[in-house]
Amino acid sequence: MAKSSKSKVKTDKTPVDLLTAKQAKEEYARLQIEIQQHDKRYYQQDRPTVSDAEYDELRKRYNAIEARFPDLRTFESLTMKVGAAPARGFKKVRHAVPMLSLDNAFAEQDVVEFVGRIRRFLKLSEDEPIAFSAEPKIDGLSMSLRYEGGELITAATRGDGAEGEDVTTNIRTLKQVPQQLKGKHIPPVLEVRGEVYMTKADFLKLNERQKAAGDTIFANPRNSAAGSLRQKDPTVTASRPLGFFAYAWGEISEMPADTQSGMIAWFEKCGFTTNPLTKICNSVEELLAFHRKIELQRARLDYDIDGVVYKIDRLDWQERLGFVSRTPRWAIAHKFPAERAVTVLNDIEIQVGRTGAFTPVGKLEPVGVGGVIVQNVSLHNEDYIKGIGGDGEPLREGRDIRIGDTVIIQRAGDVIPQVVDVVLDKRPKDAKEYRFPKKCPCPLHTDVVRGETATGEEEARARCSGEFACPYQKIEHLRLFVSRRAFDIEGLGEKQIQLFFENEWIKEPGDIFTLRARNNKLKLEELEGYGETSVRNLFAAIDERREIALDRFIYALGIRHVGETTGLALARGYGSWQAFHDASLKVAKGDEEAIAEMDALDQIGDTVIAAVAAYFKESHNRGIVERLTKQVTILDAEKPKTDSPIAGKTVVFTGALEKMTRDEAKATAERLGAKAAGSVSKKTDFLVAGPGAGSKLAEAKKHGVQVLTEDEWLKLIG
Ligand code: IVH
User: Fold this and answer.
1) Are residues 196 and 286 part of one domain?
2) Could you read off the pLDDT of 482-518 as tens digits, one per residue?
3) Which among 16, 234, 433, 536 has most CB atoms closer than 10 A?
4) Residues with CB under 6 A from ligand 1
5) Alpha carbon 693 to chain centroid distance?
């Protein structure tokens, strides 16, 4: 669509960097109106009055002002609107083998315990040597590259681990990613995994270019790598130098090596770059020495790392060790200590969370910590501000946090920054003690309460007593509901949910799925920033999510203490929504059998049970659930493997086992689709009894449960 350039666009030519806050505010507001008028003329009236280039200039300047003064951003900002930046999503790719993450070690003792756990699990004696592959932990984006017949077919981001985004076209522009693998014996299917990163030097250069062009400034190399990969135009990705280190694999039709280090050497032969600092270590001491050495080199390395990773070298041991929830038992990330900075606390604001809990948020004078600009810091709760720790002990004796204080903040890995100390010498005379609000800042102005934990102690967090009437809580729940790990609806993110909520088009989760039917009245396409296409896309994206996995669904309900992992544990434990729902209603009524059954599930304890009960006790919640379940299909949880002889069976281990540890035996049973229980009941199918078996053996005999020796068991599972 051609745009004539009859009218002249007024831009204030002062460089954005030199604008005062006042000037910026005025210009930002002016630009916003001006851009909206151009949008209207262009999209709705087909009579643009500026050229595309002039229009782009306005947008750029607007974005640059907002990037420099993020506080200017409001709900009305153009950057918040759907369709404003028509980010056509990338195609989704399901990973053949899930992409998992790593457990973290911070202290040296954590590493000692990690190795101890492995020895116990594998029943290795203290003097049996264990070889580890020790490597830097690259702070980039993990990527899965699928080769078929040696040719690159797809490249996918990690996403939520199960499903990522297809960025194949962009990845093809990376020099360190071979299009065709080298070597003779290439397996028909090979997924190579590793990290895409940008060097520190290239990051700085890119930011300079971005600044000159008035484009987004990236906070750190990791973000710039992510931003560069998510470009819709691959020529843009090609213009941004990205590197790739190969360090792991997913699906692979034939294994070319039987150790981690062998795999890495083979990746090199295939044409990949692997990290040159990777080293074999044979003891805890060697691992710790490696950590220290790499930490000293860290600043001089040309790429960001946030720790080192230790992996068991023998792949047969890796396989035996397997996984706990989403992390392998055979590897750990040993992080570097947190990075710190000193800055001033300008203000404290209260945020109301999904469960009504208050989080005081410190507003800081912006400061760089380890390459990221930090402006907000969580102050946790009232006691924390007063300098009292979670156990009631003094945390910062005599050093409570006041507005105006100079504070030391720290960032550890991905963790939200924290205030670790207050510099008393620098406390200004007018520093203000913070008074925790007695009323919720929500429009209901309810009284603040401090409830009880599952164990009957007073909670550290104050919360709004408005419960379901509190709009802050409702919106937080909707935010969780549409978030990436829950329903993940394309085009319905936090900002849009806020808009829809404020207009009362979506008051609760079920409303999302009736939007289309109500659109005759709502007429979303007439909204500023929306058009027929974006509304059509939104409805299509919503429809795509009418089928949902049980674990995600449970997580999306927003039950307190039920995070992703617990959602998965409940889903696996009950298998279907019907079973979980029935059980939860019984639990809410105090049915002891139902409670005991929930308690017997892996990773579920009193706190979760109390939270599930509290949730289903509320008729309001039951109503939300009922209306929602009418709109969606909840898929049963992954069925236990049915091709194994013990699938769906319940097994109990007792007495001493000789060939493997109790933990390994349980993990193997679970991997084969059985449930490993702690006590014998009439529901038990097998009792595996070693020497020294006592009361469980007697109990098994009483119930007529089949009793096996360890050897018989091993024969049974093959
Ligand atoms: S191994 C099963 N090795 O760290 C786990 N990960 O917290 C396979 N990462 O998502 C990952 N450097 O993005 C591995 N040398 C390395 C790594 C590394 C960085 C990242 C990776 C992963 C995250 C886990």
Assistant:
1) yes
2) 988 899 998 898 888 988 998 899 999 999 999 999 9
3) 16
4) 100-102, 135, 137-138, 142, 158, 195, 247-248, 309, 328, 331, 333
5) 43
Q: DSSP readout, 460-483?
A: SS-EETTGGG-HHHHHHHHHHHHS
* 205 catalytic per annotation: no
Which is the catalytic residue, given 60, 92, 137, 184?
137
- Fill in the amino acid letter for 652: V
Q: How confident is the model at residue 391 (pLDDT cuts 50, 70, 90)?
A: low
Going by the DSSP 8-state scheme, the letter that residue 562 receives in this structure is: -
Our CA angle for 246, 249, 254, nearest 5°, is 125
Say if residue 376 is in the same domain as residue 355: yes
Is the residue at 703 inside a domain? Answer: yes
Q: Which of 95, 99, 100, 101 to mutate to test the pocket of ligand 1 (most atoms within 8 A of CB)?
A: 101
| Residue nearest ligand 1's atom 10 by CA | 101
What is the identity of the amino acid at 347? D
pLDDT tens-digit map of 442-483:
887 888 877 665 556 667 778 887 767 788 889 989 999 998
* Best residue for ligand 1 mutational test, from 195, 290, 329 (most atoms within 8 Å of Cβ): 195
The rounded distance, in Å, linking the Cα atoms of 110 and 574 is 34
> Would you call 42 exposed, middle or buried from its count of C-beta atoms within 10 A (0-12, 13-18, 19+)?
middle
Band of pLDDT at residue 640, cut at 50, 70 and 90:
low
Closest by CA to 484, choosing from 475, 493, 496, 472, is: 493
Element (H, E) at 60: helix 52-68
DSSP letter string, 189-235: EEEEEEEEE--HHHHHHHHHHHHHTTPPPPSSHHHHHHHHHT-SSHH
Are both 201 and 344 inside the same structural domain? no
Give percent of the chain with pLDDT exceeding 70.
90
Atom of ligand 1 nearest to the CA of 137: 12
Of all protein residues, the one whose alpha carbon is nearest to atom 22 of ligand 1 is: 101
Last-in-domain residue among 405, 426, 447: 426
Would 433 be classed as within a structural domain?
Answer: no
CATH number, domain of 507, equals 1.10.150.20
pLDDT of residue 145: 98
| Cβ contact 508:623 at 8 Å | no
List the single range of 111-115, 335-339, 399-403, 556-560 with lowest mean pLDDT: 335-339
Residue 539's domain comprises 467-545
The tens digit of pLDDT for each residue in 304-333 reads 898 999 999 999 999 999 998 778 999 999
DSSP 576-593: SHHHHHHHHHHHHTT-HH
522 and 607 inside one domain: no
Where among 28, 48, 80 does a domain terminate? Answer: 80
Residue 520: inside a domain:
yes
Atom 13 in ligand 1: which residue has the minimum CA distance? 142
Question: Do 654 and 585 share a structural domain?
Answer: no
Average the pLDDT over each of 182-186, 432-436, 670-674 and give the range with the smallest value: 670-674
Specify if 37 maps to a domain: yes
Q: Are 360 and 376 in contact (CB under 8 A)?
A: no
The mean pLDDT value of the chain amounts to: 86
Q: How far is the CA of 515 from the centre of ligand 1 (A)?
A: 40
Total domains present in the chain? 6
CA-based angle 631:635:636, to the nearest 5? 140
* Ligand 1 centre distance from Cα of residue 42 (Å): 46
pLDDT of residue 639: 60
Look at the block and give the residue holding tokens 């404020």: 502
Contacts of 176 (CB under 8 A, 6+ apart): 243, 244, 245, 272, 273
Residue pLDDT, tens place only, 234-269? 888 888 899 999 999 999 999 999 999 999 999 999
Give yes or no: residues 305 and 183 share one domain: yes
Q: Tell the residue nearest (CA) to atom 11 of ligand 1.
A: 101
